[in-house]
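Input/output pair, single chain:
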Amino acid sequence: MTTVRTIPDLAVPEFLGVKSRSRWLSLLLRVSVPALILLLWWYSTSHGWVSTEVFASPGQVVQAFWELVNTGQLWDFGLASLRRAGLGVGIGVSVALVLGLVAGLSRLGEELVDATVQIIRVVPFLALVPLFISWFGVDEAFKVALIAVSSASPMYAYTYLGVRSVDRKVVEAARGFGLRGWRLAVGVVVPSALPNILMALRICLGISLVGLIAAEQVGATEGIGYLVTLAQQYYRNDYMVLCIVIYALIGIGVDLVIRLIERTAMPWRRHGTAAG
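Output:
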């Protein structure tokens, strides 16, 4: 007689306590702290605990938001920033992913790649700004290159670690079924390293926002970072806080997208069934 047993939830370790919880309760707990911070922000500015000349109130930020929406600048600047970030992250992550796979899959690849990448990785990417300006000027190439470099290091490190952490027994079993070379890498190694790769992508996208801010502070005429510069020049505290909120929302949105990809690509991390 065939029985069905539930595979343990790999996404929640035992030491974290209760695994089963209502989705709505979990969502409520997740938004409770941000909501409390927002409430404290509103209360402190409306009751004079914090001067609105130092830190704009939520109402002022909302008003600044509608000003930018009505003029069309918010859409134009946001689209420019997303285009730069997308291109830079795409280049940086792609190159780093390939290098991480090469170093992780091959001893020769590790010997040729790893030392050089580790040297580059420990150099703060903001220290490269003057050098990149001398190479690329202050046009789009400089901005894309800085974002690409900022997002590359986590992807390489996590990909290398993920490939090297693949169970050797799984690899040997795949070889027993005739998988070799690129078929083994694509069919077995990369899927096994996918949790590390997706975690790296989350970190890369977060760090790329720092690179984006730094890039748009130099020679930009559009973008959220350029809006920050304008806000500093004209002492628009509400615009500066709005830009911070926009960056935070972009980060949250990106994180939610990556979580959705994780749920779709790795359903076994949540639940599953197996015959036993």
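Residues 138 and 219 are 5 Å apart (CA to CA). The longest strand covers residues 4-6.
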